[in-house]
Amino acid sequence: MVQASEEIASDAGAAFALLCEVEKWPVWLSLARSVRRVDSGAALGTGSEIAIHAPLLGHDEELYVVERFIDGHLLYLESAYSCRRSWEFRIERKGARGRINVTLAYATYGGWLGARLDRLGRARRAAAALAASVVHFKGLVEFENHPNRVLADF
Hints:
About 30% of the residues lie in helices and about 35% in strands. The chain has helices spanning about 10-20, 25-30, 110-120, 120-145; strands at about 1-10, 35, 50-55, 60-70, 75-80, 85-95, 95-105. It starts with a strand and ends in a 10-residue tail after the last helix. The relative contact order is 0.22.
């Protein structure tokens, strides 16, 4: 399991709106090569199906189902084929600010030794990629909701 969290200097509602645009996840979520809604047309909610291709996690495109959905706060995806694989996105409101928390759980096989090897290899790369992705998400939300929408020259 890997986790990442970042405070967002913008409205939490705007952050959740960007999170609900799952087709745009590969723009900010470097773990995902492609993401698409399987059941297009309906609004995102409990029971929605999402296909995620995340090669770093060691699997081809996999089907996930939205198991829990609280508008403006929680998006929890669980694999349609294994309850041990899940993505949890939480947006917390803190006044005019927000915080995104992302937790990724995936199965490791091979017992104690397999878990140790995973922690040394894939888990470390996944944690670094997830942390960078959350920072990228923060930047997108803050830029989209900045009053001037002009980046300063550095």
